[in-house]
Amino acid sequence: MQKSAVLCGLGAYLPETVVTNDDLAEIMDTTDEWITSRTGIRERRVVGPGISTGDLAVRAGARALKSAGGEPVDLVILATTTPDHPCPATAPFVAHRLGLVDTPAWDLSAVCSGFLYGLTAASSFIAAGAARRVLLIGADAFSTILAPADRGTRPIFGDGAGAVVLRPGDPGEPGALGPSVLGSDGSLRELITVQAGGSREPLDPAEPDQEGRYFTMQGRSVFRHAVARMTAVTEEVRERAGWRPEDVDCLVAHQANRRILQAVAERLGLPMERCALHLDRVGNTAAASIPLAMADAVGRGGLLPGHRVLLTAYGGGATWGAAALTWPDITPQPDGRERASEG
Protein backbone atom coordinates (compact mmCIF):
# COMPACT_ATOMS: atom_id res chain seq x y z
CA MET A 1 0.00 0.00 0.00
CA GLN A 2 1.32 3.43 -0.95
CA LYS A 3 2.19 5.55 2.05
CA SER A 4 0.36 8.78 2.79
CA ALA A 5 1.75 11.93 4.36
CA VAL A 6 0.63 12.17 7.99
CA LEU A 7 0.56 15.38 9.99
CA CYS A 8 2.51 14.73 13.19
CA GLY A 9 3.72 18.15 14.37
CA LEU A 10 2.40 21.72 14.47
CA GLY A 11 4.00 24.98 15.57
CA ALA A 12 3.16 28.68 15.36
CA TYR A 13 4.86 31.99 15.96
CA LEU A 14 3.60 35.57 15.95
CA PRO A 15 5.84 38.63 16.44
CA GLU A 16 5.33 40.56 19.64
CA THR A 17 4.27 43.96 18.27
CA VAL A 18 0.49 44.42 18.07
CA VAL A 19 -0.96 47.10 15.77
CA THR A 20 -4.64 47.85 16.38
CA ASN A 21 -7.09 49.53 14.04
CA ASP A 22 -6.98 52.58 16.28
CA ASP A 23 -3.20 52.68 15.85
CA LEU A 24 -3.65 52.76 12.06
CA ALA A 25 -6.33 55.45 12.34
CA GLU A 26 -3.71 57.74 13.85
CA ILE A 27 -1.49 57.58 10.78
CA MET A 28 -3.89 57.13 7.84
CA ASP A 29 -7.39 58.03 6.69
CA THR A 30 -9.33 55.19 8.29
CA THR A 31 -11.25 54.18 11.41
CA ASP A 32 -11.68 51.05 13.47
CA GLU A 33 -15.30 50.79 12.28
CA TRP A 34 -14.29 51.11 8.60
CA ILE A 35 -11.67 48.35 8.83
CA THR A 36 -13.70 45.99 11.00
CA SER A 37 -16.89 46.26 8.94
CA ARG A 38 -15.05 45.48 5.70
CA THR A 39 -12.53 42.88 6.84
CA GLY A 40 -13.40 41.62 10.33
CA ILE A 41 -9.85 42.49 11.41
CA ARG A 42 -9.30 44.38 14.66
CA GLU A 43 -5.53 44.00 15.12
CA ARG A 44 -2.51 42.36 13.58
CA ARG A 45 1.10 41.48 14.55
CA VAL A 46 4.06 43.05 12.75
CA VAL A 47 7.79 42.45 12.83
CA GLY A 48 10.06 44.92 14.59
CA PRO A 49 13.28 46.41 13.20
CA GLY A 50 15.80 43.78 12.16
CA ILE A 51 13.30 40.89 12.25
CA SER A 52 12.85 38.97 9.01
CA THR A 53 10.67 36.25 7.54
CA GLY A 54 13.47 33.78 8.25
CA ASP A 55 13.45 34.69 11.94
CA LEU A 56 9.71 33.97 12.12
CA ALA A 57 10.18 30.71 10.21
CA VAL A 58 12.86 29.47 12.59
CA ARG A 59 10.60 30.03 15.60
CA ALA A 60 7.62 28.24 14.06
CA GLY A 61 9.79 25.47 12.63
CA ALA A 62 11.44 24.76 15.96
CA ARG A 63 8.06 24.47 17.65
CA ALA A 64 6.72 22.12 14.98
CA LEU A 65 9.78 19.89 15.34
CA LYS A 66 9.31 19.82 19.11
CA SER A 67 5.62 19.02 18.71
CA ALA A 68 6.58 16.10 16.46
CA GLY A 69 8.93 14.63 19.05
CA GLY A 70 12.16 16.25 17.95
CA GLU A 71 13.11 13.69 15.31
CA PRO A 72 15.18 15.08 12.40
CA VAL A 73 13.62 15.80 9.03
CA ASP A 74 15.14 15.22 5.61
CA LEU A 75 13.45 18.04 3.67
CA VAL A 76 12.50 21.64 4.47
CA ILE A 77 10.03 23.64 2.37
CA LEU A 78 9.43 27.32 3.13
CA ALA A 79 6.35 28.93 1.55
CA THR A 80 6.78 32.70 1.48
CA THR A 81 6.32 35.84 -0.62
CA THR A 82 8.68 37.91 1.53
CA PRO A 83 12.04 36.07 1.53
CA ASP A 84 14.93 37.53 3.46
CA HIS A 85 16.79 38.22 0.19
CA PRO A 86 16.08 37.95 -3.54
CA CYS A 87 19.02 35.55 -3.61
CA PRO A 88 19.75 33.09 -2.08
CA ALA A 89 16.59 31.32 -0.93
CA THR A 90 15.69 31.72 2.75
CA ALA A 91 14.95 28.04 3.47
CA PRO A 92 18.57 26.78 3.54
CA PHE A 93 19.54 29.29 6.24
CA VAL A 94 16.39 28.43 8.20
CA ALA A 95 17.39 24.77 8.05
CA HIS A 96 20.92 25.66 9.17
CA ARG A 97 19.65 27.62 12.15
CA LEU A 98 17.44 24.67 13.11
CA GLY A 99 20.49 22.40 13.17
CA LEU A 100 19.45 20.41 10.10
CA VAL A 101 22.84 19.61 8.57
CA ASP A 102 23.02 18.97 4.80
CA THR A 103 19.20 18.89 4.58
CA PRO A 104 17.72 19.94 1.23
CA ALA A 105 15.68 23.12 1.63
CA TRP A 106 13.95 25.41 -0.82
CA ASP A 107 11.54 28.33 -1.04
CA LEU A 108 8.11 28.09 -2.63
CA SER A 109 6.26 31.15 -3.91
CA ALA A 110 2.48 30.95 -4.38
CA VAL A 111 1.51 33.90 -2.14
CA CYS A 112 -1.46 33.03 0.10
CA SER A 113 -1.80 29.57 -1.49
CA GLY A 114 1.82 28.77 -0.67
CA PHE A 115 1.15 26.52 2.30
CA LEU A 116 -1.25 24.32 0.33
CA TYR A 117 1.16 24.14 -2.61
CA GLY A 118 3.87 23.12 -0.13
CA LEU A 119 1.58 20.59 1.54
CA THR A 120 0.91 18.89 -1.78
CA ALA A 121 4.60 18.91 -2.68
CA ALA A 122 5.60 17.47 0.70
CA SER A 123 2.93 14.79 0.42
CA SER A 124 4.24 13.82 -3.02
CA PHE A 125 7.82 13.52 -1.76
CA ILE A 126 6.67 11.21 1.03
CA ALA A 127 4.40 9.11 -1.20
CA ALA A 128 7.26 8.64 -3.67
CA GLY A 129 9.69 7.61 -0.92
CA ALA A 130 11.93 10.60 -1.66
CA ALA A 131 11.53 11.94 1.91
CA ARG A 132 10.54 10.38 5.20
CA ARG A 133 9.91 13.46 7.32
CA VAL A 134 9.26 16.93 5.94
CA LEU A 135 9.19 20.27 7.73
CA LEU A 136 6.81 22.62 5.90
CA ILE A 137 6.79 26.25 7.02
CA GLY A 138 4.54 29.07 5.89
CA ALA A 139 6.00 32.45 6.88
CA ASP A 140 5.54 36.02 5.74
CA ALA A 141 6.44 39.52 6.88
CA PHE A 142 3.97 41.32 4.64
CA SER A 143 4.29 44.55 6.61
CA THR A 144 7.68 45.02 4.91
CA ILE A 145 6.16 45.31 1.41
CA LEU A 146 3.08 47.44 2.16
CA ALA A 147 2.81 51.15 1.32
CA PRO A 148 2.61 52.96 4.68
CA ALA A 149 -0.52 54.97 3.84
CA ASP A 150 -2.40 52.45 1.66
CA ARG A 151 -5.62 51.77 3.53
CA GLY A 152 -6.56 49.14 0.96
CA THR A 153 -3.71 46.83 1.99
CA ARG A 154 -2.04 47.87 5.22
CA PRO A 155 -5.02 47.16 7.51
CA ILE A 156 -5.46 43.70 6.01
CA PHE A 157 -2.10 42.01 6.37
CA GLY A 158 -0.13 40.85 9.39
CA ASP A 159 3.11 38.96 9.94
CA GLY A 160 3.63 35.48 11.32
CA ALA A 161 4.72 31.91 10.72
CA GLY A 162 3.19 28.46 11.08
CA ALA A 163 4.76 25.07 10.46
CA VAL A 164 3.90 21.38 10.27
CA VAL A 165 5.89 18.16 10.24
CA LEU A 166 4.77 15.32 7.98
CA ARG A 167 5.77 11.65 8.12
CA PRO A 168 4.78 8.56 6.12
CA GLY A 169 1.82 6.54 7.35
CA ASP A 170 -1.31 4.67 6.37
CA PRO A 171 -4.05 6.46 4.39
CA GLY A 172 -6.69 5.67 7.01
CA GLU A 173 -4.87 6.83 10.14
CA PRO A 174 -5.55 10.13 11.90
CA GLY A 175 -3.50 12.95 10.41
CA ALA A 176 -3.30 11.38 6.95
CA LEU A 177 -3.71 13.83 4.12
CA GLY A 178 -6.51 13.03 1.73
CA PRO A 179 -7.06 14.40 -1.76
CA SER A 180 -5.69 17.80 -2.73
CA VAL A 181 -6.30 19.99 -5.77
CA LEU A 182 -4.28 22.98 -6.95
CA GLY A 183 -4.84 25.53 -9.71
CA SER A 184 -3.56 28.76 -11.24
CA ASP A 185 -4.46 31.39 -13.82
CA GLY A 186 -1.61 33.65 -14.90
CA SER A 187 -3.95 35.96 -16.79
CA LEU A 188 -4.97 37.31 -13.36
CA ARG A 189 -1.40 38.10 -12.27
CA GLU A 190 -2.06 41.84 -11.91
CA LEU A 191 -4.84 41.38 -9.33
CA ILE A 192 -2.27 40.76 -6.58
CA THR A 193 1.25 41.96 -7.28
CA VAL A 194 4.45 43.77 -6.46
CA GLN A 195 5.41 45.11 -9.88
CA ALA A 196 8.97 46.27 -9.24
CA GLY A 197 11.98 44.46 -7.84
CA GLY A 198 12.27 41.57 -10.29
CA SER A 199 14.07 41.12 -13.58
CA ARG A 200 11.16 42.59 -15.60
CA GLU A 201 11.19 45.85 -13.62
CA PRO A 202 14.33 46.15 -11.48
CA LEU A 203 14.41 48.60 -8.61
CA ASP A 204 16.05 51.90 -9.52
CA PRO A 205 18.31 53.17 -6.70
CA ALA A 206 17.80 56.70 -8.01
CA GLU A 207 14.06 56.41 -7.30
CA PRO A 208 13.52 55.53 -3.62
CA ASP A 209 9.76 55.97 -4.10
CA GLN A 210 9.64 54.03 -7.36
CA GLU A 211 6.09 53.25 -8.41
CA GLY A 212 5.48 49.55 -8.14
CA ARG A 213 7.81 48.74 -5.26
CA TYR A 214 4.89 48.08 -2.90
CA PHE A 215 2.25 45.36 -2.80
CA THR A 216 -1.03 46.19 -4.54
CA MET A 217 -4.34 44.35 -4.73
CA GLN A 218 -7.54 44.88 -6.72
CA GLY A 219 -9.85 44.14 -3.81
CA ARG A 220 -13.23 43.76 -5.53
CA SER A 221 -11.93 41.49 -8.27
CA VAL A 222 -9.94 39.45 -5.78
CA PHE A 223 -13.07 38.97 -3.67
CA ARG A 224 -15.06 37.67 -6.63
CA HIS A 225 -12.38 35.31 -7.92
CA ALA A 226 -11.38 34.10 -4.44
CA VAL A 227 -14.93 33.14 -3.48
CA ALA A 228 -15.54 31.34 -6.77
CA ARG A 229 -12.24 29.44 -6.85
CA MET A 230 -12.10 28.53 -3.16
CA THR A 231 -15.68 27.26 -3.27
CA ALA A 232 -15.16 25.18 -6.41
CA VAL A 233 -11.83 23.63 -5.42
CA THR A 234 -13.03 22.83 -1.89
CA GLU A 235 -16.18 21.19 -3.23
CA GLU A 236 -14.02 19.08 -5.55
CA VAL A 237 -11.79 17.94 -2.69
CA ARG A 238 -14.78 17.19 -0.45
CA GLU A 239 -16.36 15.06 -3.15
CA ARG A 240 -13.08 13.24 -3.84
CA ALA A 241 -12.83 12.50 -0.12
CA GLY A 242 -16.34 11.04 -0.17
CA TRP A 243 -17.62 13.47 2.45
CA ARG A 244 -21.02 15.15 2.57
CA PRO A 245 -21.20 18.77 3.78
CA GLU A 246 -22.56 17.57 7.12
CA ASP A 247 -19.51 15.30 7.51
CA VAL A 248 -17.12 18.26 7.57
CA ASP A 249 -16.20 19.26 11.12
CA CYS A 250 -13.97 22.24 10.33
CA LEU A 251 -13.10 24.46 7.38
CA VAL A 252 -9.65 26.02 7.77
CA ALA A 253 -9.51 28.66 5.07
CA HIS A 254 -6.79 31.15 4.30
CA GLN A 255 -7.76 34.10 6.50
CA ALA A 256 -8.29 36.64 3.70
CA ASN A 257 -11.14 38.59 5.27
CA ARG A 258 -14.32 37.70 7.08
CA ARG A 259 -16.61 38.46 4.14
CA ILE A 260 -14.74 36.03 1.89
CA LEU A 261 -14.83 33.31 4.53
CA GLN A 262 -18.53 33.83 5.13
CA ALA A 263 -19.30 33.69 1.41
CA VAL A 264 -17.27 30.50 0.90
CA ALA A 265 -18.78 28.80 3.97
CA GLU A 266 -22.31 29.68 2.84
CA ARG A 267 -21.73 28.25 -0.64
CA LEU A 268 -20.25 25.09 0.87
CA GLY A 269 -23.25 24.66 3.17
CA LEU A 270 -21.16 25.05 6.32
CA PRO A 271 -22.17 27.18 9.34
CA MET A 272 -19.59 29.73 10.46
CA GLU A 273 -19.21 27.97 13.81
CA ARG A 274 -17.50 25.16 11.88
CA CYS A 275 -14.99 27.56 10.31
CA ALA A 276 -11.66 28.39 11.90
CA LEU A 277 -11.52 32.15 12.38
CA HIS A 278 -8.77 34.18 13.99
CA LEU A 279 -8.14 36.95 11.47
CA ASP A 280 -9.72 39.42 13.89
CA ARG A 281 -6.53 39.11 15.99
CA VAL A 282 -3.82 38.53 13.37
CA GLY A 283 -5.09 39.72 9.99
CA ASN A 284 -4.17 38.00 6.74
CA THR A 285 -0.80 36.34 7.33
CA ALA A 286 -0.52 35.04 3.74
CA ALA A 287 1.42 31.75 3.54
CA ALA A 288 1.34 31.45 7.34
CA SER A 289 -2.44 31.82 7.47
CA ILE A 290 -3.59 28.19 7.37
CA PRO A 291 -1.10 26.67 9.86
CA LEU A 292 -1.63 29.60 12.24
CA ALA A 293 -5.40 29.13 11.98
CA MET A 294 -5.02 25.40 12.66
CA ALA A 295 -2.92 26.04 15.76
CA ASP A 296 -5.42 28.62 17.01
CA ALA A 297 -8.36 26.28 16.39
CA VAL A 298 -6.69 23.47 18.35
CA GLY A 299 -6.07 25.83 21.24
CA ARG A 300 -9.71 26.92 21.25
CA GLY A 301 -11.10 23.39 21.00
CA GLY A 302 -12.36 23.83 17.46
CA LEU A 303 -10.12 21.07 16.09
CA LEU A 304 -10.26 17.71 17.85
CA PRO A 305 -8.74 14.31 17.02
CA GLY A 306 -10.84 12.60 14.37
CA HIS A 307 -12.34 15.80 12.95
CA ARG A 308 -12.73 15.87 9.20
CA VAL A 309 -11.02 19.02 7.98
CA LEU A 310 -10.98 20.92 4.70
CA LEU A 311 -8.20 23.41 3.93
CA THR A 312 -8.52 26.05 1.21
CA ALA A 313 -6.77 29.19 -0.04
CA TYR A 314 -6.57 31.72 -2.86
CA GLY A 315 -3.51 33.82 -3.62
CA GLY A 316 -1.62 35.90 -6.13
CA GLY A 317 -0.61 34.39 -9.40
CA ALA A 318 -3.52 33.75 -9.38
CA THR A 319 -3.20 30.50 -7.42
CA TRP A 320 -5.63 28.42 -5.38
CA GLY A 321 -5.92 25.06 -3.74
CA ALA A 322 -7.67 22.81 -1.25
CA ALA A 323 -6.91 19.64 0.69
CA ALA A 324 -8.62 17.24 3.08
CA LEU A 325 -7.35 15.49 6.19
CA THR A 326 -8.55 13.83 9.38
CA TRP A 327 -7.19 15.69 12.38
CA PRO A 328 -4.59 13.82 14.48
CA ASP A 329 -4.02 13.87 18.22
CA ILE A 330 -1.23 16.46 18.35
CA THR A 331 -0.48 19.38 20.61
CA PRO A 332 0.89 22.45 18.83
CA GLN A 333 3.59 24.50 20.41
CA PRO A 334 1.99 27.91 21.19
CA ASP A 335 2.63 31.10 19.26
CA GLY A 336 4.20 32.91 22.22
CA ARG A 337 5.30 36.53 22.39
CA GLU A 338 9.02 36.35 22.90
CA ARG A 339 11.25 38.31 20.58
CA ALA A 340 12.55 36.62 17.44
CA SER A 341 16.12 37.37 16.47
CA GLU A 342 18.61 36.21 13.88
CA GLY A 343 21.47 33.96 14.88
Short structural summary:
This protein is globular. The protein has helices spanning 21-25, 32-39, 53-67, 91-97, 114-127, 219-241, 258-268, 279-282, 289-299; strands at 4-13, 17-20, 43-46, 75-79, 105-108, 134-141, 159-169, 177-184, 192-193, 216-217, 250-253, 308-315, 319-326.
Structural description of this entry:
The chain has 343 residues and is an alpha/beta fold. The protein has 2 domains: 4-169, Peroxisomal Thiolase, Chain A, domain 1; 177-326, Peroxisomal Thiolase, Chain A, domain 1 (3-Layer(aba) Sandwich), CATH 3.40.47. Helices cover 29% and strands 23% of the residues. The protein has helices spanning 21-25, 32-39, 53-67, 91-97, 114-127, 219-241, 258-268, 279-282, 289-299; strands at residues 4-13, 17-20, 43-46, 75-79, 105-108, 134-141, 159-169, 177-184, 192-193, 216-217, 250-253, 308-315, 319-326. A 5-stranded mixed β-sheet has the order 1-7-6-4-5, sandwiched between helices. The longest helix is centred in the last third of the chain and has 23 residues, at 219-241. The radius of gyration is 19 Å and the shape is globular. The model is unreliable at 336-343 (pLDDT under 50).
Provide keyphrases for this structure.
5-stranded mixed sheet; alpha/beta; 343 residues; Peroxisomal Thiolase, Chain A, domain 1; disordered C terminus
CATH architectural designation of the largest domain: 3-Layer(aba) Sandwich
Fold-level CATH name of the largest domain: Peroxisomal Thiolase, Chain A, domain 1
Q: CATH homologous superfamily of the largest domain, by name?
A: Thiolase/Chalcone synthase
Strand content bin: 15-25%
Which bin fits the share of residues in helices?
25-40%
Oligomeric assembly: single chain
How confident is the prediction overall: mean pLDDT?
94
Which stretches are poorly predicted, pLDDT < 50 over at least 5 residues? 336-343
Tell me, briefly, the overall form.
globular
Number of helices: 9
**Amino-to-carboxy terminus distance:** 43 Å
Strand order in the sheet with the most strands? 1-7-6-4-5
What count of domains describes the coordinates?
2
